[in-house]
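Hi F.,

I've been meaning to write this up properly since the lab meeting, where we talked about keeping a consistent format for the predictions we share between groups. The idea is simple: the sequence comes first, exactly as it goes in, then the structure tokens exactly as they come out, then a line or two of notes. No screenshots and no reformatting. I'm using this chain as the first example so we have something concrete to point to.
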Amino acid sequence: MSPLLAGLPSAATERFPVARGIIEQLANGASLVCVDDWRAPPVQEGEKVRGGTGLLKAQAICPAWAFYRYRLGARALGEPVAGLDAAARGTLLHAYSNISGRARLCRSGGAG
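Output, unedited:
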């Protein structure tokens, strides 16, 4: 880990305590409830499902994907890349600068 990030709290345990609680509950034997939800709501009268021939092609290839894409508005995920792009690096740098600046102000007794 970078020495610049060593003092920051762990995101998994500090920022998202609800997620940690769910994991602990499941690990301690909490039961899951299965719901039989295999049928989508019907297209309502007057409702328009857009897609044209793309919808028909998707339906022929994979009915599930056609439903996700055209009824739920899902999109394919982008191609993953190794590391952070320039925009993400800039966002991370700005967030770190903001946090470290506040920490310096607090240590020096300034208003923060």
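Notes:
The mean pLDDT is 80.
The CA atoms of residues 67 and 78 lie 20 Å apart.

If this format works for you, I'll send the rest the same way.

G.
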